[in-house]
Amino acid sequence: MHTRRNNNPFLYSCLTLFILIFLSLSSSLAQAGKVREYWIAAEKTDWNYAPTGANQIDLASDLGVWGKTLTYTKYRYIGYTDGSYSHPLPQPEWMGILGPTIRAAVGDTIKIHFLNKTDMPLSMHPHGVMYDKDNEGADGGKGGSIPPGERYTYTWIVDQDAGPGPGDPSSIVWLYHSHVMAEEEVNLGLIGTLIITAAGKAYSDKNPAPRDVDQEFIALYMIFNEENDEESGLKHAINGRIFGNLSGFETRRGQRVRWHLVALGNEVDNHTVHWHGQTVLDHGRRTDVVEIMPASMTSVDMVPRSPGNWLFHCHVNDHMIAGMATRWLVK
């Protein structure tokens, strides 16, 4: 039996075009990200740099001049469950003064519902992600200066350039902070981080954290200037705590741990972050000291090999003396 073939070129062209359009739409849908919503308020609060009142690194010593005054008025970002701003989100103790961690994966859209509950104009300016002028959180756009009591919704796009590069781990860290008068607000404590996971590397659609690590820690190394350069007011802090008063960096031997390291501040904020008892993989380099400077952001991986309660500190001599140290526990 002879079957007649249809050699109509127009029909073949239409069929080919249909297939290409279908494949393109399927690819776009497959790559479409989620909208990640966060409710964050700026609030005025008291902050104690050493809540125990003691030097937890060397119990035989005191806090020196840096213990003269420990509690100051600060401004912080606080995360909430919804737009009522009545139920704060819990944070692990090791986060200290940091604002809530904003997580997303490449392809997602981040929406930040910001409420300024303080007495001064503030904003939220992100690093890394894509935004238009009104969502920059700085420099004259609509979201650049939110008055006390007012709200604003920022929209940030997590495009490919916001995610990990070819030599990066599966998640990387970016800073966010207020940028009306940036130096003043950062020193007040208005600092947080975004963690962006590579496409296809997240746990699930609901959880954008990377699936190839067991734990992630964030450490902000920064000298808060509380008393116009008086030495007693220069708080050499990790996440806003000094002399070992930051607790909660706890893990287990064999865990896959990612450390997100950030710094802000002035020319004195050149830090050499050092772990005792363990090395890290820093973009292909094996080391136990990572250098960070003001507005630096980097992410390194480790697998703890040796149980102990180890020092985690800045290796700059002056910073060590002033209490820029805590401990991390390997069980």
Commentary on this structure:
This protein is mostly beta strands. The protein has a single domain, classed as Immunoglobulin-like, CATH 2.60.40.420. Helix content is 11%, strand content 36%. The protein is built from three helices and 19 strands. The strands form five sheets. A five-stranded mixed β-sheet has the order 11-19-18-13-16. The longest helix is centred in the first third of the chain and has 23 residues, at 9-31. Pfam families: Cu-oxidase_2, Cu-oxidase_3. GO terms for molecular function: copper ion binding; oxidoreductase activity.
Which terms summarize this structure?
four-stranded mixed sheet, Immunoglobulin-like, oxidoreductase, 331 residues, oxidoreductase activity, mainly beta, globular, 3 helices
Number of domains: 1
What Rg, in angstroms, do the CA atoms define?
24 Å
CATH homologous superfamily caption:
Cupredoxins -  blue copper proteins
Number of distinct beta strands = 19
Strand and helix layout:
Elements: H1 9-31, E1 35-48, E2 71-80, E3 102-105, E4 109-116, E5 125-126, E6 151-157, E7 171-177, H2 182-188, E8 191-197, E9 215-225, E10 234-238, E11 250-251, E12 257-263, E13 271-275, E14 280-282, E15 285-287, E16 289-292, E17 297-302, E18 308-314, H3 317-321, E19 325-330
Condensed summary:
Pfam families: Cu-oxidase_2 (PF07731), Cu-oxidase_3 (PF07732). Keywords: Metal-binding, Oxidoreductase, Signal. Helix content is 11%, strand content 36%.
